[in-house]
Each structure stands twice: as structure tokens, then as C-alpha cells.
Design a protein that fits this description.
Layout (H helix, E strand, L loop, with lengths): L1 E7 L5 E13 L12 E13 L9 E12 L12 E2 L2 E2 L5 E7 L3 E3 L2 E2 L7 E16 L2 E2 L4 E5 L3 E9 L12 E6 L3 E14 L2 E13 L2 H4 L5 E6 L3 E11 L2 E12 L2 E8 L3 E4 L10 E4 L8 E9 L5 E18 L4 E5 L7 E2 L14 E4 L2 E3 L3 E2 L5 E2 L1 E18 L9 E16 L7 E7 L8 E2 L15 E4 L3
Parallel strand pairs: 12-19
Antiparallel strand pairs: 1-2, 2-3, 3-8, 4-7, 4-10, 5-6, 5-9, 10-11, 10-13, 13-17, 14-18, 15-16, 15-17, 18-19, 20-23, 21-22, 22-28, 23-27, 24-25, 24-26, 24-31, 25-35, 29-30, 31-32, 32-33, 32-34
């Protein structure tokens, strides 16, 4: 006959014992009976199993301590704790074994003794050291939560031992793994400058700081990072304690608002003295006169997930090149040192239209006037070729405090402009547009969560003057 009895050891892990009663019939003469008498003996054994309980995720592992106490009913026989086995594992001198077990798992933990111990009973207790995640003081282990892109994730991994603290579980190593698009910061270096009477934040370099697992695979119980793309991601920590690898994790739904841009081209290439940045000087330009912008970028709100947030624009340029030819074979040239790498467009963030942060514009232009060298010799322009590729980014920042969230990109509009102009009939002649390219009327924006990178500012690009040979 088998009888199963269950009783709780904690709120979610349970022992189950199965009792086996066996009837043994023999013909050997008992010491106090007649020859040939039959006798019977009942042997009782017990199998024990532990249900580890906890979450519904079997990938989580916790450290268990199982303690056994054995009482021998053989007169004069003593029990040594180290002779006890639990689930086939030898106990230590305290009668304990430590083992790492996954959640929601049946573990056979029957107590046995070596040969020579045939008449004994045993009792068992179990303790579990939970490996927990804490964020803002709340245990989030084995839970699913939500977070907005760019909000800070600061988590600490530690054991939550039973109240009597009898696990003595010490972590000797941590290994952090974070799924999804994750960074530890978005770094931008800026300094205040004044050019032509305008004071602004001039950016020199900017880049996302990656989350490198190797950096955090040390004795660090805490980690900090930011997700910058919507997804369902796990963050988990593998710890080493008593030679076992213990795992705990949390799941996050990373949420993102939906913002895009509408973009409108409002001008073409013009050569005149009406450019907004000129003071009667001749410029070739794309918009920027008569209150007409070359290209305008306006935010479109498709959906939001919080009422308090900020937006900003950031523009980076590639393939920047301007060459102006002058009389006598002289030329002035500016080219990106690394032609296909990004440079930031003047300031960070990009200057929005005064009084709003939901639209901005760009109207690039170059002066085409005479050049005076260090010997005061004057050269007159005869031709100019100029152009660049641009990417206007829309960035978002959650409404948490500045130390609790970082800027993340939501959308980008790639566009480009170029021109080739020449002067006809000598230095006193007129300028003519030989060829040009401007974007289509409504260049599309693209949703993105990838950060731009830049290592230089466009206003710092070297300009080289080549004298006639």
C-alpha cells in the first residue's frame, strides 16, 4: 500500500512523502516458536520529493538547503551526519546538503543510510535562498513590468534569505545579461561658443555608450542601463554561490510613443544677396530668403504613452564638400576628413524655430565672394561645387528627471542638397547654375531607434586655400 501525504514547507515549495508497506512471509523458525511455523514482518520505507514552486518560469534557479536528522532504532547504534545521504548526495557534518534547483521542479530527496543502518527514521527541513531583483526598492524577480524607452533601469541582485538567515549564502560572482537594444548612456560633448554674435551649444562629439556584458561580469551586484527600442526583453543575473550557478530574471515590456515627421521643401537653389545670413553679400543658397525655408521638418504625434515628455532635433551630415575655384587657378576647399563619417550640424540640439519644439528648418548656403590671401592678393571666384547628405533626427525624452532618463531617437529624415554654379563672362559677369539637386517636395521620414554618431562639428572642418602654382 502506498500513501502520499503533502504538507507545505513555505508558501510555495512542498515536501511529498510516499510510504511503502511491504508484507514479508518467511519459513525460518523463530527463536520462540515451533519448527516449521510461518511468520510475517512488515517493512516500511519512505520516499521524499520536493516541489520547488515559485514562478512559472522554469529558467529561474534558486539555492536550497536540505537538512536531515536520522534516528537509529538499533540499540547502541549512533548516527554520523556525514553518513546521511539526501537524494544520493552526502550530507556535511551538520546534516545539510546545498543544491541549485529550477523553479517548478520535482526533486527526489529521499534520505538514505549506508549498509548497516536498517532500522531508522528521519526528519527533514528545507530552506530556500531566493535570488531577487530590486528596482526602486521593489522586488521585481520573476515578474513582468513595463518601462518607457530612455528611462533608467537600475537593478540590484541579492539573496533574500529566510528570516533566521541560516542559509549562509554568499555570492562570489555576478554575470549580467540584458536583452534588446540597450545602452548605458548617450554621450554628447558640448561647449558654449559665440559666432557672429550668436551664442549656442557647439557639439564636438556624440555617441551611444554600449552595454558591454564583459564590463558587468564581475562582482557587481547592481547594474544600470537604458533600453532605446520597444520590445519584450529579459534582464537576468547569473550568480555563483557555494559552487552553484543561480539565476534570477525579470521581464520588461519596453514601450515607445509614436512620433514621425512631415517634411516640406519650399525652395530651390538661388544666387542673390537676399540670403538671411548675408549682409549684401552674394550667396548661393537653398531657401533662406523671403521667409522661405529650404526644407521644413514638423513633428507628427501618432500616439503618446505619457503626458510629460520632451522633443528635440539633431542633424548630422556626411559627404560634406565645398570647392570654390578662383582666378589664376587658386581654389578654396572644405571636405570631411573622413568623407563617409558623420559630423554634427553646428549645435546640439539642432536649433528649433523660436517658441516651439515641434518643427524646425534648414536653409544652407555659401558665400561666393572674392578671397584675399595673407599677402593681401585678391582672387575672384569663378566656380563653386558644394553639397552634403543630411539626416535630421527627432529625439524623445521621458518626463522623468534628467538623471532618470536619456534622449532616444524616434525618427529620421534623410535628405541631401548640392549645386554646381559658374560665373560667365569673366569676373564682372553673371553667375549661372550649371546643375543642382534638392529633395523631393515631401521627403519621407523613417522610424528609427538607432543612435547617430559623430566625432566632429561641421564648423570645425578644415578649409584649405591653394595658391596658384
Amino acid at each position: 500500500m502506498v500513501t502520499n501525504v503533502s504538507f507545505p514547507c513555505s508558501t510555495d515549495y512542498t515536501f511529498t512523502f510516499g510510504y511503502q508497506n511491504t508484507l514479508v512471509v518467511g519459513t525460518q523458525q523463530p527463536s520462540n516458536g515451533d519448527p516449521g511455523d510461518f511468520y510475517e514482518r512488515i517493512e516500511i520505507s519512505a520516499d521524499a520529493r520536493l516541489w520547488t514552486g515559485s514562478s512559472t518560469n522554469g529558467s529561474v534557479t534558486n539555492l536550497f538547503k536540505l537538512h536531515a536528522t536520522v534516528t537509529s532504532w538499533t540499540p547502541g547504534q549512533t548516527v554520523t551526519n556525514s553518513a546521511i545521504q539526501i537524494g544520493g548526495i552526502n550530507c556535511d557534518t551538520n546534516g545539510d546538503i546545498y543544491i541549485a534547483l529550477p523553479d517548478n521542479y520535482w526533486y527526489t530527496c529521499t534520505v538514505t543510510m549506508p549498509a548497516g543502518y536498517s532500522n531508522y527514521t528521519y526528519a527533514m527541513t528545507v530552506d530556500r535562498a531566493n535570488l531577487q531583483f530590486f528596482r526602486a526598492g521593489t522586488n521585481i524577480a520573476n515578474t513582468t513590468s513595463s518601462i518607457i524607452i530612455g528611462q533608467k533601469m537600475a537593478v540590484t541582485c541579492t539573496f533574500q534569505n529566510p528570516a533566521n538567515n541560516n542559509m549562509l549564502a554568499q555570492i562570489t560572482n555576478y554575470q549580467w545579461v540584458v536583452e534588446g537594444s540597450v545602452v548605458t548612456n548617450f554621450y554628447v560633448s558640448t561647449n558654449i561658443v559665440t559666432i557672429d554674435g550668436n551664442t549656442f551649444n557647439k557639439a564636438t562629439n556624440g555617441y551611444p555608450v554600449p552595454f558591454q556584458s564583459s564590463v558587468w561580469n564581475t562582482n557587481r551586484p547592481a547594474v544600470q542601463f537604458y533600453w532605446h527600442a520597444p520590445a519584450t526583453n529579459k534582464v537576468y543575473c547569473l550568480t555563483t554561490t557555494r559552487g552553484f550557478t543561480i539565476r534570477s530574471e525579470a521581464v520588461f515590456e519596453v514601450l515607445s510613443p509614436d512620433f514621425t515627421m512631415t517634411n516640406t521643401v519650399g525652395a530651390t537653389i538661388t544666387i542673390d544677396t537676399n540670403y538671411v545670413k548675408s549682409i549684401g553679400d552674394l550667396f548661393v543658397h537653398f531657401g533662406g530668403s523671403s521667409n522661405t525655408s529650404g526644407i521644413t521638418f514638423k513633428v507628427v504625434t501618432n500616439s503618446t504613452i505619457e503626458s510629460n515628455f520632451s522633443l528635440q532635433f539633431v542633424q548630422v551630415l556626411t559627404n560634406v564638400h565645398t570647392r570654390t575655384d578662383y582666378t589664376e587657378g587658386a581654389l578654396l576647399e572644405m571636405t570631411s576628413p573622413s568623407y563617409y563619417l558623420n559630423v554634427i550640424d553646428t549645435q546640439y540640439p539642432y536649433d528649433p524655430v523660436v517658441g516651439t519644439n515641434d518643427y524646425t528648418n534648414d536653409s544652407p548656403g555659401n558665400q561666393i565672394g572674392p578671397y584675399t590671401d595673407i599677402d593681401n592678393k585678391v582672387y575672384y571666384p569663378t566656380n563653386q561645387v558644394s553639397g552634403f547628405n543630411a539626416s535630421m533626427y527627432l529625439f524623445y525624452k521621458s518626463g522623468q528627471t534628467s538623471t532618470e532618463a536619456i534622449w532616444v531617437p524616434l525618427a529620421v529624415t534623410p535628405w541631401s542638397v548640392s549645386w554646381d554654379v559658374t560665373k560667365t563672362n569673366g569676373i564682372n559677369g553673371n553667375w549661372k547654375i550649371k546643375s543642382f539637386y534638392v529633395p523631393p517636395l515631401h521627403p519621407p521620414s523613417i522610424k528609427t531607434n538607432s543612435y547617430p554618431k559623430w566625432l566632429e562639428n561641421v564648423i570645425d572642418l578644415p578649409i584649405q586655400f591653394y595658391s596658384p602654382t
